[in-house]
Design a protein that fits this description.
391 residues, alpha/beta, Rossmann fold, 7-stranded parallel sheet, Kdo transferase activity, Glycos_transf_N, transferase, Kdotransferase
Length: 391
């Protein structure tokens, strides 16, 4: 009775004019709907969507925060938690299973899913959160959470938060799910050829280097050449057309430069190789044991740091993480990167990583972070398959 009253009062309080949202077509066949309210869960749910598609042969659609475009996951806008908006969303998508992340609790939506007999589960749960004003209504949180078949939390503290909200039997500590595997491709024959060309030389990469950070990278490389005279710097400029001007700037400082776009070879005396094709990052990450995250000193890191981590490249970066804050935080928590406070210390960090043991340890820790959570995602995938089979 308390729940029914609470839901009724919450629904009345949250009524508002609902605008119809443009919606992509619904996929054919059964649909697993994933909801990710935050940027971090958008990435892990995108990886879950990929595995649902590839391993279970089911369509997966994401709502909430959109993942990075290259992850290529179908997205549907959700709208607010009002009866009109919820009905419009569910009538269009007709999900066969709903998987929520983080802990966002939408009482009207959950009640409507239960009425349609759509099974629900929550993954990567951190704490239950009702929409603004929802906590004032009696029984609303507990009864809404009771509708979930499984609630998998990231840790024991999160599990306690759900137990305090009144649920216990179906709350389990599972851990964090895996990030998307960003193993960028490359042409193996080309990688083998360049590997033979550089013949065991130490290599570092400046990935997506903006013009504002060129001076810091050049200074770091010139300083490191005094410690390792065979050191090769590969630069991928943020703007490909910047290559020739950057080459002139480096040559004026006495550096020997080759430009890939001109089909210039890496010679024994080449100190800098400007690789100005942004489609070849998979090649350069494989060749460079050390990678500087371009943009991280000024505008914010431009490339996803897990691209380098997934291919065994140890990462140096500045204090500005850009759109990749949660990933850098995880890497830093595991001491899997080498942060620098400003460009003047980039050379010191590079010198530190010229030690093979040091770079191997850092790259190994980063790879562990990149591959974290696969067992948790396996578990979620098995639950998805079971719930779909039980329908």
């Amino acid at each position: 009775m308390a729940y029914s009253l609470g839901l009724t009062l919450y629904t009345l309080a949250s009524r508002r004019e609902a605008a119809s949202l443009p919606r992509p077509p619904r996929p054919e066949g059964p649909v697993v709907w994933l909801h990710a309210p935050g940027a971090a869960s958008a990435r892990t749910m995108a990886e879950l969507a990929r595995r649902i598609d590839e391993e279970l042969g089911l369509a997966a659609v994401l709502s909430g925060m959109e993942p990075p475009p290259h992850l290529n996951v179908p997205h549907q806008p959700l709208g607010g938690d009002t009866p009109v908006e919820v009905a419009e969303f569910l009538d269009h998508l007709r999900p066969d299973l709903a998987v929520f992340a983080e802990g966002e609790v939408r009482p009207v939506l959950v009640d409507a899913l239960a009425a349609r007999k759509v099974p629900m589960m929550m993954v990567e749960a951190r704490a239950p959160v009702l929409p603004p004003g929802g906590r004032r209504w009696p029984g609303l949180m507990r009864r809404t959470l009771d509708r979930f078949a499984h609630i998998l939390t990231v840790d024991e503290a999160a599990a306690r938060a759900f137990r305090r909200a009144g649920v216990s039997d179906h709350v389990k500590v599972a851990g964090r799910m895996e990030e998307p595997h960003l193993v960028l491709p490359c042409t193996e024959a080309e990688r083998a050829e360049i590997t033979r060309t550089i013949a065991g030389r130490p290599v570092w990469l400046a990935a997506a280097l903006p013009e504002a950070e060129e001076e810091a990278v050049i200074a770091a490389h010139r300083a490191a050449l005094h410690l390792s005279h065979r050191l090769l710097l590969i630069v991928v400029p943020e703007v490909p057309d910047r290559g020739p001007a950057l080459a002139r700037r480096m040559e004026d400082l006495g550096l020997a430069v080759a430009i890939r776009a001109r089909e210039e070879d890496i010679l024994p005396e080449t100190e800098v190789y400007i690789a100005d094709n942004p489609e070849e990052y998979g090649l350069w990450y494989r060749l460079a044991p050390i990678c500087f995250a371009g943009g991280s000193l000024t505008v914010g890191a431009i490339r996803d740091p897990l691209e380098a981590a997934s291919l065994g490249s140890a990462l140096i970066h500045g204090p500005r993480s850009g759109a990749h804050g949660p990933i850098f935080a995880r890497l830093l928590a595991r001491k899997a990167t080498l942060p620098v406070p400003h460009g003047r210390t980039l050379g010191d960090a590079l010198a530190d990583l010229l030690s093979p043991d040091r770079v191997a340890r850092l790259a190994g820790e980063a790879w562990d972070v990149a591959s974290d959570g696969s067992e948790v995602t396996d578990r979620v995938l098995a639950l998805v398959e079971r719930l779909m089979e039980e329908r």
